[in-house]
Structures are given as C-alpha cells and as structure tokens.
Amino acid sequence: MACSILWIEMSEAIEDEIEAINSIYGESTLCRSSDDAAFDGHVLTIPSREVALRLLIPKQYPDVCIDIIAVEGVGSMVQKGYGNHVLITARDVLERVFIPGQVCLFDVLQELEQRLTLEKSVQEEEPSENKEPATRLYPRVERSREADVPNEVPFIPEWTLSTTVTEKKSVFLARACAIKSTAEVEAAITHLLTSDKRAGKATHNISAYRIRTVINGNEVVYQDCDDDGEDAAGGRLLKLLQMMDVWNVLLVVSRWYGGVKLGPARFGIINAVARQAIITGEFAQD
Fold first, then answer.
1. Is the pLDDT of residue 170 over 50?
2. Are strands 67-74 and 51-56 parallel, antiparallel or unpaired?
3. Cα–Cα distance, 18 to 188 (Å, whole number)
4. CB within 8 A of 207, min separation 6: which ones?
5. Among 51, 125, 212, 247, which residue carries the largest CB count within 10 Å?
6. pTM of the model
7. What is the three-class DSSP state of 129?
8. Tell me, what DSSP letter sits at residue 37?
C-alpha cells in the first residue's frame, strides 16, 4: 500500500512538471509515450532543434534520476549524427544538474539548449586570432553598475498589466515596461515597490529583463532575473522573454501566497500572466 501511495505522488509530480515545461516551451514539448506508458516512458522534444529524445522516468523520481534512453527522432533537415550528439550532450547535462529529491527536467532542457546554442555560435563565427567579441552574450549583471549613468530626471515606468489570476487563494499579476539600461531596471522595481503598497506586500515579485544596446559601435546585451524567493521562477520568465524575442523590457510577476501550495503548476500561471502582459503591451516581435 505504501508503494502505491508513493507512485501516486510521483505521478502527480511528473504531470506538474510536464504542464510547467509545456506552458513555457509549447505543447507536446514533453509528453508521455503512448507505446511505452506502462514504463512511464516520455518523449522530450528539444525546442528549435528538430530532435526528440526518449526518456524513462522511474517511479521513484525525483529521488532517483531519470534515464535518457535514445534518440526518438530527428527532422528531415537535421545533419547526420546531430541527434546522437544531442543525446550525449543531454546525458552529460543531466549528470551535472540532477540532485536527488528535486525535479530537474526544466533545468536540463534550459542548460541543454544554452550549450547547443553556444556550440552553434562558435561554429558560425569566423576564426581570427585578434578578434574581440562584438557582442557579450547574456552576462549576469548586478543591480547597480558603474557603467550606467543615472538619469537626471527620475525614471518613472509605464506598466502594462495582465489580468489578475487567482488559484487556490494565491493571486498572480504580471507587469511589463520598456527599459533601456540596468539603472532603469533598478529604478522601475524600486518605484513599483514604494509606490504600489499592494505590490510591496506581495510574497514574491519575480522579475526578468533583457536589454540590447550599442556601446562604442558594438552591440552589448544584458539580461538577468530574480526569483525573489520563488525558486527557479525568474529563470522561467527570462526564458519566456528569449523565446518571444523580447528586448528592452522588464517583466515583473507578483504573487500573493494564499496558504495552499500549488507545486510546479504555479509556473504555468506565472508564464500565462507574463505572456499576457507582453502581448498586451505590444512588446513582442511580429
């Protein structure tokens, strides 16, 4: 009987993780394999790679690590051998990321995509001994930077708001505004928390931003995120901005905790309100 109860709990954890991943990366990114359902087989499609991997998720997950079994399939335009390369890379990422007792599939997918993207950018760049990188890819920056010169006129953000979503007494609300520097990011968040008493009392104010600017003729990119106590939520917001190709925008999702834990399903709600704020504010590329 005890084993049956454990399996029910683990099944719910898996379904919550599937829902969270699919809400961010798109439907059917992670789905149960119909022909291997008895063994809880799943298929993970790597976004924008046309490669799908077959996974085996043990009943004891996340206490026991998943197994990336094989390449499920590749697209017709994929170079020969690339699917196997993705498989080997994914296994390496899994080995580094997995911590017993913690769900890991989102982190595996995120790091795998970053590594594959970096490999592609290195392959496409022309070799040059003295060439300095024109673009700094996604550096993590502190809240205040000496390179940012404060505006003489205080920065007042113009927020676009999502609709409010309530789930089991927890309330979620997203805001998005245009920004041009990390100094404006800091000013916008400070202004929000000091001018809006309700936002200031939120349990979590999760944030992410992306900035693309030109300094001395070179394009420079900044991006960062803040969980504000909601573990891994900031990274998911940043991933949403990347997938929607949104630049020079600050995204803040406030959550007022209602006393009932929502599990990984909360990420689907956070993603939904954030996406709505971006679209309503017309920040997304056509």
1. yes
2. antiparallel
3. 34
4. 185, 189, 225, 226, 228, 234, 237, 250, 251, 252, 253
5. 51
6. 0.57
7. coil
8. G
